[in-house]
Every structure is written in structure tokens, then in C-alpha cells.
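Quick illustration for those who missed Monday's session on complexes.
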Amino acid sequence: MLSDESKARIERLFLHYPDKRSVLIPALFIAQEQFGYISDEAVRSVAQFLELSWNEVWAVASFYSMFFKRPVGRHVITVCMNISCMICGAKKIAEHLKAKLGINFGQTTSDGKFTLLEVECLASCGTAPVLQVNLRYHENLTPEKVDSILEELEEWKNGRLED
Ligand code: FES
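Prediction with FE2/S2 (inorganic) cluster bound:
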């Protein structure tokens, strides 16, 4: 069930959108913050609150890679593995990350700090290779840049997904 705080945040969005259906994507972000991922309960709660069907909500949630379908760690690192990034060294970046974190794509570190995912094009092909940490982009990556990103995250105490 959506919390009172989540409902209030979604209701505030109604002021900026023409109808409830249009609020679906930001409402899913709010639900993801509350539930940690887009669980079945999150889909049902958002559908009920926006007066949409479960299928309508799931169709959108399942399309976008920024909505997690399983529990994730505090920091979600999403690596683009599509053509421009591959040409510019994404495989090396991915292998470096896997070695540093000791996990493969689709896995979370045992301390729950990091989840590593792969994605098909982050729409920043001109600055390949690219990865995303939560919602923040990191571009023109090198293994050294990846190291400093990870060091920064290790020191970061507040793990809210939108930061
Ligand atoms: S191919 Fe990586 S951002 Fe498009």
C-alpha cells in the first residue's frame, strides 16, 4: 500500500499534469522509493491510486530499465553495453566493475551497497562509454574514472535513488 507520504507526493503532481494517467511515470518513481523496487504490490498500489489497471501500470514499469523489477542495492550501477559504448570500451569498463565489485550483471554485493545492471543504450552515445549510478550519468569512462566513482560512492552516506 502506498504510504500517506507517497500519496501526498503523487497528489501534488496532479497540479502539473492534465490527468491522473499522465502522472504514472513520476508516481512509479515515488513507489520505487517507498518499496525499494517495483514489486507486485507497488504496481497494484499505483494502479489503484491512479485508477488504472494493473496491466497499464505494469506495461510502463516493465518497459523502462530505470524501474527495478527486483530488490536492488543502495547504489544501482547501470552500464550501457550497446554499439557505441561497446566500440568505445564498454566491455573493459564492465569487466573492471565486475572485478572491483566481485559480482556479475544482475547481482548485488553481499553488503547490499551495489547492484550491477546492463542496459541497451542510455541515449548518450556521443559520450560513450557511459554508465549511470542511480539517476546520475557518468560519461567518457575509463577504468580510472570508474575507480574514482566507486570511491566517491563508498564515502557517500545518503543512498536516496534520485540523488
Ligand atoms: S550506445 Fe551507449 S549510450 Fe548509446
